[in-house]
Structure formats: structure tokens, C-alpha cells
Design a protein that fits this description.
By secondary structure, this protein is α/β, with parallel strands linked by helices. It has a single domain, classed as 3-Layer(aba) Sandwich (Rossmann fold). It contains 12 helices and 10 strands. A 7-stranded mixed β-sheet has the order 6-5-2-7-8-10-9, sandwiched between helices. It has a 3-stranded mixed β-sheet with strand order 1-3-4. A hairpin with a 5-residue loop joins strand 3 and strand 4. Helix 1 crosses helix 3, helix 3 packs across helix 12 and helix 6 runs parallel beside helix 7. The longest helix has 24 residues. S-adenosylmethionine binds next to helix 6. The site of S-adenosylmethionine (SAM) has 19 residues, from helix 6.
């Protein structure tokens, strides 16, 4: 079984194991979902993979009373908890429920930020329907709520956190990113390469070459080095704040780069080998990987529905 097939199976196993919980979620505000784009399944596969590795390692440390006593999950762009394909009625759980269903008992607390009022209300109702108690949801712009979240998690001693930062475009400011990088955490960041390149080309087309949005996103005008790849520039900015960072970037076809950011360890981050495999497999044929993930997850979800309905 290839890496991708195994990860698709893992995600489908979540859908089958938590079928009744997912049905409850789907019955709440059925029309309120995030749009599920072509590359969403592959993004969620990578998210599920990194969160599984992260949570099992940190949880083992907690159980053996080594280094850490608490772990937190923070979803800065949480969405509604459910994604729907625009063209039909296929749905798939989003990052909040992948984290809650698989890992809620390992995390001391899970924080969600979603600033669309309708989405936020639905997400809250969906979480409450499952009776999950260790969750906190903010309705503010996450660039504002980041201070509150950080003050809560950094107060707890011997803690470690996983941040999933999954914006639509350039919504996460460098000021916020710097604050997160300075906290003890690993980060999975959806770096919206395509949108960022478009914004950069538009700025270059202006006589002034100015863009406040890009300045706010990169923290300075480093984006102006026209010959350089935007993801490389951003990685360099990360290294300037966290010099001991280890960054694994996986390019998802023409859409985005998924950046996993952790800290170099004395043991040479053995578990990062899994991410190298993921990178090799996805990038060797990224277009095909997007399609395989989309088709197989859609088919798998449908088979599960048929299986449970009969
Ligand atoms: C790409 S979607 C998130 C999908 C979700 N992570 C998942 O995997 O299911 C981005 C979400 O962020 C929300 N959002 C956009 N800007 C935001 C901001 N500044 N603060 C908080 N949420 C924001 C949008 O309403 C949208 O639901």
C-alpha cells in the first residue's frame, strides 16, 4: 500500500468509527458547510497525518511524565467543521472534528477561532451536540484572539501545542505568526502560494510596487525579491524568528504549500522521516495525488453511507 492509500484509509477509518457522531454533526444546520475545493482532501490527509504523529509523541511524553504535562490544539481558521463539495452533496468532516473525534482526550483543551458568525454558531452547536467539554471557541478575528489563546496556554506549565493555521489567503498577519513562533509549539500552515503569487504580481504591476497586505503578511517587504519563490522567502522569515526551526514544505500542485514547522531536537527528529516520505510521494505527482485523494475519499464516503444505510 502506498503512503497515500494508507492515509486515505486512515481518514475513512475515522468516518466509519465515528459514523453516529458524524451523522449528528451533519444533521445540524445541514446547509452550513465550508466549500470543499479540489485539493481539500489532500490537505486534510496531510493534516490528519501530522496531527496523528504529533499527538502520539507528545501524549507518550505526558504519560511517562517526561518534559510535558499538558498539550493544546489550536485551530486558527476552524470553519464549520463540515466541508461540502460544491457540485454535489458529498461532505467530509473538517479539521475541528478530525482533531476532536480522534484526539479530544489527549488534549488538555482545544481552541477554535472562526470569525464568520454563522459558521461560528454552527460549529459551536455541532461541538455541543457531541457533548465535548474541553473546547473553547472564539468569534473574533484570529489575529485578535491569538493573544488570548497564547496567554491561556503559556500560563500552563510544561505544555506543548499544535497550531493548525488554514486561511483562505493572506489573512494571518506576520505579527500573529511571530507570536505563535515564539511559543512552544509545532505548526501546520497552509501557505496559499497561488493567491500570494497573484497578489505579488498585482503589486509588481503597480508603479509604486506597494502592497500593505503583502507587507503585513510577510512582516516586511521581503516579498519584493521578484526572482525568489514566495514560500522560500516566508521560510527564511520563520528562521529569523525561530533559528532552531525545522520546516518541511509540501507543494500541493498549483494550490498551496503545506508547511510543517517544528523544532530541531537532539535525536534528529527521527519521526520527520515520515514527512519526507509524504513529501516525496505527493510531490512526485502532485496533480495526480490531488485527484486520487479526491476520488477515493468521495467513493469511500459514499460506500460508507450505502453500507450504513442498508
Ligand atoms: C479554509 S477555511 C478552514 C477550513 C478548516 N480548517 C477545515 O479544514 O475544515 C477558512 C475559514 O477561516 C475563516 N476565517 C477567515 N478569516 C478569518 C479570521 N481572520 N479569523 C478567524 N477565522 C477566519 C473563514 O470563515 C473560513 O471558515
Amino acid at each position: 500500500m502506498t503512503w497515500l492509500d494508507k492515509q486515505i484509509k486512515d481518514l475513512l477509518d475515522t468516518s466509519s468509527k465515528f459514523k453516529s457522531e458524524i451523522q449528528k454533526i451533519e444533521n445540524i444546520d445541514p446547509n452550513i458547510c465550508n466549500d470543499f475545493e479540489e485539493a481539500t482532501p489532500l490537505k486534510l490527509i496531510f493534516f490528519n497525518y501530522t496531527l496523528n504523529i504529533y499527538s502520539s509523541i507528545i501524549h507518550k511524553y505526558i504519560q511517562s511524565k517526561k518534559f510535558f504535562e499538558n498539550m493544546f490544539y489550536i485551530d486558527m481558521f476552524a470553519g464549520t467543521g463540515l466541508n461540502r463539495l460544491r457540485s454535489n452533496k458529498d461532505t467530509m468532516i473538517g479539521s475541528p472534528f478530525i482533531a476532536i473525534l480522534n484526539h479530544k482526550d489527549k488534549f488538555t483543551k482545544l481552541f477554535f477561532c472562526e470569525n464568520n458568525v454563522r459558521y461560528n454558531t454552527t460549529l459551536l452547536k455541532r461541538i455541543n451536540a457531541l457533548g465535548v467539554k474541553n473546547c473553547e471557541i472564539s468569534q473574533e478575528d484570529c489575529n485578535k484572539s491569538v493573544d488570548d489563546v497564547l496567554s491561556k496556554i503559556t500560563k500552563v506549565k510544561n505544555s506543548h501545542s499544535f497550531f493548525f493555521i488554514d486561511p483562505y489567503a493572506l489573512d494571518f498577519t506576520w505579527e500573529s505568526m511571530e507570536k505563535v513562533l515564539n511559543c512552544k509549539c509545532d505548526i501546520l500552515f497552509t501557505f496559499m502560494t497561488n493567491s500570494i503569487n497573484r497578489a505579488r504580481n498585482a503589486a509588481f504591476a503597480l508603479p509604486s510596487n506597494k502592497s500593505t497586505v503583502l507587507d503585513n503578511f510577510f512582516g516586511k517587504d521581503s516579498w519584493k525579491s521578484a526572482e525568489r519563490d514566495v514560500a522560500d522567502i516566508y521560510s527564511e522569515n520563520i528562521m529569523s524568528v525561530r533559528p532552531n526551526a525545522l520546516i518541511q514544505t509540501v507543494r500541493i500542485d498549483k494550490y498551496y504549500d503545506l508547511m510543517f514547522i517544528t523544532k530541531k531536537t537532539k535525536g534528529n527528529n527521527q519521526w520527520m522521516r515520515g514527512l519526507h516520505t509524504a513529501k516525496k510521494e505527493i510531490e512526485s505527482n502532485s496533480k495526480e495525488a490531488v485527484k486520487i485523494a479526491l476520488d477515493k475519499l468521495k467513493r469511500g464516503q459514499r460506500d460508507l453511507n450505502i453500507y450504513y444505510e442498508t
